[in-house]
Write a structure and sequence with these properties.
This protein is α/β, with parallel strands linked by helices. The chain has 7 helices and 7 strands, in the order βαβαβαβαβαβααβ. Bound molecules: NADP nicotinamide-adenine-dinucleotide phosphate (NAP) and D-gluconic acid (GCO).
Length: 268
């Protein structure tokens, strides 16, 4: 019989994954469902929530979907109240919803910069603040913030995103520090370059049929020689959501195929 410290099961747990109609959020929710969790997700548009529910159903998962813009504190508080009434207290929160705007910094408007910060940093604060009180009452909770390699590195055109994801790393550490005494663990997952709609522009086949230069760059910088798949994040997320990680707190688990360890393949 496994003791609690080797228990990767999420049976009996309610997991809320924000922005999980598709992409990384969907893959993480699917993995958590496979470990026994009840899945709750949200998206901004009803049509996407409906599409998400259908997609989960195709995987044999009865997911609970809510329309909610995670940057709207009143809407988030209303959603959490509805979830607690209709499904149950959120045991696991995955702050996954996120956007990116790839614009050279001096050409980026303050409005665009603020929008990225709002979704990628302010929203995880808003949603975490909404679920923590019930986690405290329940005596446990798990918060997983989807960070990024841009929590550690910069690159051209992603100033707002890097600022947000760097801040999200420190928000992760601060939630861990402030609420660890209530048996709440807050950790981050830092995906490498994952093949989802968000990175599709970086993988577009060129008019001459060649790979996008950035695609070639990532392939040469990744020991595995491939982009990550959203499903590569499922296992790490289940681990951080389970009792097996009860003494892991304030960490960012990078799931990047080794890109941060590798100088890169020398040109042939
Ligand atoms: P994606 O395909 O663009 O999906 C993002 C999801 O977030 C969509 O469902 C989107 O819904 C939702 N969303 C955006 N703004 C929202 C808001 N205000 N309220 C509610 N939902 C909102 O992105 P992804 O690649 O799956 O990325 C998911 C997370 O992983 C993001 O935080 C991203 O920064 C992070 N990440 C991605 C990669 C990567 O290589 N793909 C790597 C590291 C980290 P709509 O469709 O309605 O906009
Ligand atoms: C980019 C990419 C990255 C990935 C991811 C890397 O334009 O550099 O979108 O930011 O999304 O965050 O970890």
């Amino acid at each position: 019989m496994m003791d609690s410290k080797t228990n990767f099961s999420l049976a009996g747990k309610v997991a809320l994954v924000t922005g999980a109609s598709y992409g990384i959020g969907f893959a993480i929710a699917k993995a958590m469902a496979g470990a026994g969790a009840t899945i709750v997700f949200n998206d901004i548009k009803q049509e996407l929530v409906d599409k998400g529910i259908a997609a989960y159903k195709e995987e044999g998962i009865t997911a609970h979907g809510y329309v909610c813009d995670v940057t709207d504190e009143e809407a988030v508080n209303g959603m959490i109240a509805k979830i607690e009434e209709e499904v149950g207290v959120v045991d696991v929160l995955v702050n996954n919803a996120g956007i990116i705007k790839r614009i050279p910094m001096i050409e980026m408007s303050a409005k665009d910069f603020r929008q990225v910060i709002d979704v990628d940093l302010n929203a995880p604060f808003i949603v975490s603040k909404a679920v923590i009180p019930s986690m405290i009452k329940k005596g446990h909770g798990k918060i997983i913030n989807i960070c990024s390699m841009m929590s550690e590195f910069g690159r051209e055109t992603v100033s707002a995103y890097a600022a947000a994801k760097g801040g999200l790393k420190m928000l992760t550490r601060n939630i861990a520090s402030e609420y660890g005494e209530f048996n709440i663990q807050c950790n981050g997952i830092g995906p490498g370059y994952i093949a989802t709609p968000q990175t599709a522009p970086l993988r577009e086949v060129q008019p001459d049929g060649s790979r996008h230069p950035f695609d070639q760059f990532i392939i040469s910088k990744t020991p595995a020689g491939r982009w990550g798949e959203a499903s590569d994040l499922g296992g790490p997320a289940v681990f951080l959501a389970s009792d097996a990680s009860d003494f892991v707190n304030g960490q960012i688990l990078y799931v990047d195929g080794g890109i941060q360890a590798y100088i890169g393949k020398q040109p042939s």
